[in-house]
Design brief:
8 helices, 182 residues, mainly alpha
């Protein structure tokens, strides 16, 4: 359940970001700059910092802190949508979202690796990754429909709320990790 829910809000918002950018008047060149050039750099930076912090803080603390940052990026997009700010605010939201996505992914991948037994790591990791991908596909398929009914700002708030149930499962995850380590 945690694997399905941890990045659910992040996965639900992603398919609608480019549409949001286009609807706010950004050109294809600007969108490419946000998503490909600056975004990739921000994601890599977030992942590197996330990996470093996960080794320093431990897995559970990292899942909490970096998960909170992931949720906050959806709230930043909600604020931008409510305020209807200039393109610079969309750039800032995009960079923050890419960075926090990298943070959260680092902690999440650490969890996936920790859950795998050494003897069956390849198979187990593939199955856990497929389970995570299912969340992306299901939530992405509903994103356009939800945005159409709610509007961007409310949809972005909704995606932040989708992330919260995972935090309730962290005590169980902590126990599961302790069993996996033995």
């Amino acid at each position: 359940a945690f694997i399905l829910l941890y990045k659910l809000g992040d996965q639900a918002i992603s398919p609608m970001l480019e549409t949001f950018w286009r609807d706010r008047g950004l050109t294809l060149a600007q969108i490419g700059l946000i998503s490909n050039t600056l975004g990739v750099g921000a994601t890599i930076s977030g992942a590197l910092l996330g990996g470093f912090l996960t080794t320093r803080w431990g897995l559970i603390r990292s899942l909490v802190v970096m998960g909170a940052f992931q949720v906050s990026s959806n709230l930043v997009y909600a604020a931008v949508a409510f305020a209807q700010g200039p393109p610079g605010t969309i750039y800032a939201a995009g960079m923050f979202e890419s960075f926090t996505q990298g943070l959260g992914t680092a902690a999440f991948l650490g969890l996936l690796m920790r859950l795998c037994d050494k003897e069956h790591a390849g198979t187990q990791y593939a199955l856990l990754s497929a389970l995570f991908a299912l969340t992306r596909d299901l939530s992405g398929g509903l994103s356009g429909w939800a945005t159409d009914r709610l509007g961007y700002a409310q949809f972005f708030l909704y995606t932040a709320a989708l992330s919260l149930p995972a935090f309730l499962l962290l005590p169980w995850v902590r126990r599961r990790i302790a069993v996996a380590v033995r």
